[in-house]
Write a structure and sequence with these properties.
The chain is of the alpha+beta class and 157 residues long. It has helices at residues 2-18, 148-156, and strands at residues 27-29, 32-36, 41-52, 55-67, 70-84, 87-97, 102-113, 116-126, 131-135, 143-146. Strands 1, 2, 3, 4, 5, 6, 7, 8, 9 and 10 form a ten-stranded antiparallel β-sheet that branches.
Length: 157
């Protein structure tokens, strides 16, 4: 049961954050933006809010690098939160590499879904291999809370 919940939670986390790499229009609001065209880089600072469809990412600073106009990788810093449908996540920093499909939430990383919560100091998920690693928190433990009723309902679908 734990493996099933953990896979679902991490997959949903990735779908939430990685949606910034899809073709759907992206709206980004911030206090300032600096674009370095020569290096294909944009930096948004000050109460950044990124909305794409039903996905919302908030942070203090967002950096994005592009290759031939497509997102290559992105880094979110400071008070990082994301929300998509009934999935919520938070950390102090997040990183997404489109080519490798690696999403990392750093420092006090937590992901909540109706099925439960997973938290650790660092959550790393590989979209391609569908593997996830959670590094222990300051108390030396990884924390997973599972709502058994929700997990059983998902198995039946």
């Amino acid at each position: 049961m734990k493996k099933y919940f953990f896979s679902i939670t991490c997959l949903l986390m990735v779908l939430c954050f990685a949606s910034i790499a899809t073709a759907e229009p992206v709206d980004i609001a911030s206090e300032s933006v600096n674009v370095d065209h020569a290096h294909s880089r944009a930096e948004f600072t000050g109460a950044v809010v990124l909305i794409q469809g039903d996905f919302t990412l908030k942070c203090d600073r967002l950096e994005a690098w592009y290759v031939k106009g497509d997102l290559d990788h992105a880094e979110a810093f400071g008070h990082v939160t994301f929300h998509r449908k009934d999935i919520n996540g938070a950390s102090k920093r997040a990183s997404f590499q489109k080519q490798t499909g690696i999403l990392i939430l750093f420092e006090q990383a937590t992901v909540r879904s109706p099925e439960g919560t997973v938290s650790g100091e660092k959550i790393t998920h590989n979209i391609q291999t569908e593997t996830t690693h959670v590094k222990k928190t300051a108390d030396g433990r990884v924390h997973v809370t599972i709502d058994a009723d929700k997990t059983e309902a998902l198995k039946k679908k």
